[in-house]
Amino acid sequence: MRLLWEQNKGLFLLGMFIILLIVGGFALVIYLLFGKKKNAEKDVVTEKKVQKQEKISELRKVAAPDGIDPNPKSYLILHDAGHDVYVRCLTVDSLPKRTVFASTFPALFNFDRVTSTVFIEPLAEGRASHLLDSRIVEIETNMITAEKNADRNQLRKLNAKLRDAEGWAQRIETGENSLYHVYFLFVLMADSLEKLNRRTDAFRNLAKEKQITVSCCYALQAESYLTGMPLVYRYQAKVGPIKASGLKKHTLDKLSLASIFNHTQDSFFHESGIIIGRNMSTGMPVAFDVYEKKHNGYNMVFAGMTGTGKSACMKILASRYITKNGYRFVCIDSQSKGNRGEYAMLADMMCGTNYEIKNNSGNIINLFDIDVEEEWSEISGTYEVLRLQDKIANAKSDIMTLIQGDKEPADFSLATHIERIVTDIIAELYEEKGIYDNVVGSIYESGKGLKNGVLTSGKVKKKMPVLSDFYIKSLIKNKRNNIREHTKAYRIILDSLKDRVRELYYCPHCMKFFTKQEYGEYYQKCTCGTDIVRILGSKAYYDGQSTIRINENESFTNIDISQLPEKERPVARQIALSFLNEQFIKKNATNPKKTQCLGVIVDEVHQNFSMKSAIASLDYVARTSRKRLVSLWTATQALKDYDCCYETEALLKQSAAKFVFKQSYSDRKWVQEALNLTNGQTDRVLELGGDPEDDAGNRKGEVCIVDNGKVCFCKIDYLERAEAVFVETDPRIIQEMYGT
After folding, report:
1. Is the overall model pTM greater than 0.70, yes or no?
2. Any residues with CB less than 8 A from the CB of 92 and at least 6 apart, and which?
């Protein structure tokens, strides 16, 4: 082998060189084919990483603040884009002994512009059992000390605690229950420190209503703010004198933990409705339509304490229905705003008409006004009817109200005699005018009259009887009366209505009646020598032919009774409502092709609940309005006002929707039963609006809407620039609006 190597040494070296050259060539080719591609891929990856880092940097600039004030204060200041954002972090310091599902915590979690965070850490069964064992040992030690000191009260309390602790320990050991460590964090934000302090006070007061005490994470605001971010981590200070997370730990069991669930409800939205505010649970807009197809009727009830936003809500609804849907409204205005009613400005803004009912105003409501009603059937089509008997019953109720007001009759037989006399006189007055039941033509006569502002001749409506006619007939019948039981009844009628007669001159002996001119010519003496009696009533708003007209082209008509004496308003409200029933509600045809959407607003209606005749009249109007596609809105200061009699309860139950504002705590049970609410919903109703002294009106307009069994808690919002002029009733806000 050595000899072979020495003889062919040169040939072997040449072969090795050729092999190395071939291998190197292959390596060079492989590098040229794949090496550059890998380097190119590395360059692309590197470039993408740079671009991603640049995007992250840009995103950080957008999402993260520019700076932060880390000083240990009760609040935190974030510097961002030249603006300061004030942040305060709060934690729960103490919890109530009992929590209620869907009631205790949601009010805090759904507070406006608050970020809520709850950390829940389950405790192992052994750890929970050890904690309870330690608690039991601690209680027993205290019991020994109490026995030595002969402190019977302390010993009694410790015995109760020992029984509770042993019960908890037994349930934990058997697996029936479990314990958790729970931390609460609430982060509030505002544009200024003043606003932040106000929002903090409002939040603390809201928590106080739930028997929850909240405290500030003092000196740990930065760590608490980071904890409130969606990072699922509790940050804590590790440098300095304070080494804690700032959040207080609470130990809750399984059942208590379940009540933390932030219970909300489905959205409340009618497709054809108007936006009235925001859902207090979800923040979504609430659209409400009184003529929603699912409603069985169209009447609505509004109930709430004074100053909670009840009237403002009604005005907002009416104005938006008029503007968006073209509905027409008539209002009986009971509350004054200066020298006008509070709905007068709304009528002005809607190009409507205000009718003031007071002395020397020239506006008269005739109790005896009657008109034909237009009915419709699938077979006969459209036809007219005249329901005189219904009108006689309504006029009787109105006159009985004028006679007795809110006073209960002292004698049943006397009240019966008065009603009989009143009914007979009313029927005779219509008969003398030639007006008969179900005879449509009897209400008309030939003559001249105005129709749509044009003087026309032909069939015109007869002049109706007036209150003076009723009083004259009462005088004549009293003079001719020979029934002893009726003598006192006539005397009560004449004395009660004397102040309601506008002007009357008569001789009490021969029952001769005079004009004002004749009264002066006869020198106040009748031809029989008897002094002529003169009557000039100071409350003659209902004596004469009606001067109030409900124009079909006007969207809002306001009958203002706010300038009348307070005791006079319930009577005026009933008579105005009866008038609207004749001239507005019954005018709405039942023909589906002609029917319009109409609304009648009656504020402070609870003042009429003390009069039986007024309740009967209200019940009749409510039933008529449902048949005529008219929405009757009644407003009271408490929902329990409807717990008066069968008719008022029916008015509440048969209403399509109830707008319930803040109610009295003493009415809790009745409110829950009347609205069919859960315990949590009832508690929330009682807390609507907060405390006016502490919340500075920020929670005004909170309302619970109960619609066909569905419950929605809504915050009514109004357009300050467009609607404040007719919505606001607070003198301070009005002063700011019009002050110089």
Report:
1. no
2. 184, 207, 212, 213, 214, 215, 248, 250
